[in-house]
């Protein structure tokens, strides 16, 4: 009961406790960490259990002279992992490209130049409200597979086109993250900077953006996990990534129906193992930054 | 704005035009100059093109592609294709040659340069339960129940011509499941698919393909439109494959029963020489 009371007071400062900012950091954090940690364990157990159940049934179904589902996954593990690394690579590169472009676009969207602001706003809204798969198709079929500039041929393989395709929505979302973070800072920061004779550019780079970074990191990491999971869409346009390989492995194993669930379950597990820690870390950062502001 | 758009459009179409001009330069010369032949093959169609655990694409069609590269004296690069992108890849020049289980259709012949004679032929056949003893020819199927895939063009033909009843299901998994459950005596489907199934222990212990294929559907290999010289080379190569029995030996190598078409072509061209 007492801890309940104190957590309430930490969230909604009562007159008895007028300065919650001065409360020890550990108190609030520890109280919130417990339920999160329990959820993690629960999730982990659930996923592992699910995997075991799927593999178990598959094992029961496989006939004589056939590899069990686990056997099949072990046999193809190196190939499937190379596919998964490719997903990671595509996600990292499109995130890098999209972040840089999105930073520029976001700063454009808060510019004092009307034309620049409107153009940046238009681009942001256009790419933010387009389905990712449509943008991917767009990049796939509009970009030629090679460019010839001054006699030298620059090849443009499918996965590079996929990187561009995914970078477009990342750019637009990043633009909104930047704009939102800048807008969320109290206007006092701008006014104080102005009174100290900082120019607009100086204020932006030396005062506003450094403060924005920690506000932008959690949503940015969230965006990354979304991109990582979206990369499997590249299989639809013919990039040989994990999901494509899963389908091909399934075919190579004779298209046994009992292998479908374990194989796709394995893909799910890989993405979960990769994305969930990022998700947890994001939440931790969110909590920390929230308390310090 | 309109002016700018127009300018952009003109620039884009010029770029496209330049691309097409470059692509229609003789591909055979380009391949020899680069020293690499790029062939589009399937990677999900056992045993015609599929992955091995190292990730390499293997099978009958990769072997055919390797033979073409050997004849040209160049290295081989395989690009995995699917039905939805193989024609585009060929038109774009991303692949030089397509050997990807492509059925011969008039609309396809309009957009790519098909190589005659067809190098292979699929047919319609039945994955028949080994328990069924009294079926040795198609006419014996009269009054029997077969499972089929709904939408397959030959379901109706088989039932009117041979008097079998065809129970149609969606896709290929459900009819196979029904077959295992004993709802029918066999699965009526593409012969190449049935052959692929019979490579696995799950199917070849209780099922077989005792009947000859009917209603042949030839497969074509193709080059980009306008590549007459390369097409001629591929025609000669195909005829040589048939003459030497290369395709029949490939079928045996990958564990499938040689098709009537391959055997017939082998006989025909052996005699012709």
Automatic annotation (TrEMBL), chain A:
A GO cellular component annotation in the UniProt record: ATP-binding cassette (ABC) transporter complex
One Gene Ontology MF term: transmembrane transporter activity
Keywords of this entry: Amino-acid transport, Cell membrane, Membrane, Transmembrane, Transmembrane helix, Transport
Localization: Cell inner membrane; Cell membrane
Residues annotated as domain ABC transmembrane type-1: 84-282
Membrane topology: Multi-pass membrane protein
Gene3D superfamilies per UniProt: MetI-like
Any one of the GO BP annotations: amino acid transport
Major localisation: membrane
Transmembrane portions of the chain: 40-60, 80-110, 130-147, 223-247, 259-278
Family named by the database record: Belongs to the binding-protein-dependent transport system permease family. HisMQ subfamily.
Protein name: ABC transmembrane type-1 domain-containing protein
Species this chain originates from: Azorhizobium oxalatiphilum
């Amino acid at each position: 009961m007492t801890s309940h009371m104190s957590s309430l007071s930490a969230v909604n400062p009562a007159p008895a406790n007028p300065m919650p900012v001065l409360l020890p950091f550990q108190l609030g954090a520890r109280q919130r960490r417990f339920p999160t940690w329990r959820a993690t364990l629960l999730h982990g157990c659930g996923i592992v259990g699910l995997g075991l159940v799927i593999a178990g049934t598959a094992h029961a179904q496989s006939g004589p002279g056939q590899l069990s589902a686990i056997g099949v996954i072990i046999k193809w593990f190196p190939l499937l992992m190379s596919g998964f690394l490719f997903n990671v690579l595509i996600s990292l590169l499109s995130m890098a490209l999209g972040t840089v472009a999105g930073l520029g676009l976001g700063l454009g969207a808060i510019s004092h130049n009307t034309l620049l602001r409107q153009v940046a706003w238009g681009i942001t809204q256009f790419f933010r409200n387009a389905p990712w798969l449509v943008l991917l198709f767009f990049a796939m079929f509009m970009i030629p597979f090679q460019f010839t500039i001054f006699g030298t041929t620059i090849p443009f393989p499918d996965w590079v086109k996929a990187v561009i395709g995914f970078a477009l929505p990342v750019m637009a979302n990043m633009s909104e993250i930047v704009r939102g973070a800048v807008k969320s800072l109290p206007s006092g920061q701008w006014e104080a900077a102005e009174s100290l004779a900082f120019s607009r550019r100086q204020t932006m780079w030396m005062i506003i953006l450094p403060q924005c970074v920690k506000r932008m990191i959690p949503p940015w990491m969230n965006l990354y996990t979304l991109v990582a999971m979206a990369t499997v869409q590249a299989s639809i346009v013919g990039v040989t990534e994990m999901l494509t390989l899963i389908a091909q492995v399934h075919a190579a194993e004779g298209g046994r129906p009992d292998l479908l669930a374990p194989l796709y379950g394995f893909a799910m597990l890989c993405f979960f193992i990769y994305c969930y820690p990022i998700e947890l870390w994001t939440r931790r950062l969110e909590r920390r930054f929230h308390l310090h502001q | 704005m309109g002016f700018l758009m127009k300018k952009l459009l003109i620039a884009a179409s010029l770029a496209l035009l330049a691309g097409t001009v470059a692509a229609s330069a003789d591909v055979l010369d380009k391949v020899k100059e680069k020293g690499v032949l790029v062939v589009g093959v399937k990677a999900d169609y056992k045993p015609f093109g599929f992955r091995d655990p190292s990730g390499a694409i293997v099978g009958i069609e990769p072997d055919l592609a390797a033979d073409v590269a050997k004849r040209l004296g160049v290295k081989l690069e395989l690009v995995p294709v699917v039905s939805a992108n193989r024609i585009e890849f060929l038109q774009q020049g991303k692949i030089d040659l397509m050997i990807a289980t492509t059925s011969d259709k008039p609309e396809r012949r309009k957009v790519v340069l098909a190589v005659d004679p067809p190098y292979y032929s699929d047919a319609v056949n039945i994955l028949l339960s080994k328990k069924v003893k009294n079926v040795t020819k198609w006419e014996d199927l009269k009054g029997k129940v077969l499972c089929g895939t709904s939408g397959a063009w030959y379901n109706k033909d088989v039932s009117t011509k041979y008097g079998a009843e065809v129970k149609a299901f969606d896709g290929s998994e459900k009819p196979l499941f029904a077959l295992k459950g004993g709802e029918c005596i066999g699965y009526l489907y593409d012969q190449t698919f049935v052959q692929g199934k019979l490579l696995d222990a799950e199917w070849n212990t209780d099922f077989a393909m005792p009947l000859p294929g009917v209603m042949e559907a030839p497969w074509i290999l193709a080059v980009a439109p306008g590549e007459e010289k390369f097409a001629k080379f591929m025609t000669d190569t195909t005829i040589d494959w048939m003459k030497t029995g290369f395709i029949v030996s490939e079928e045996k190598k990958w564990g499938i029963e040689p098709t009537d078409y391959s055997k017939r072509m082998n006989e025909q061209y052996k005699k012709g020489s």
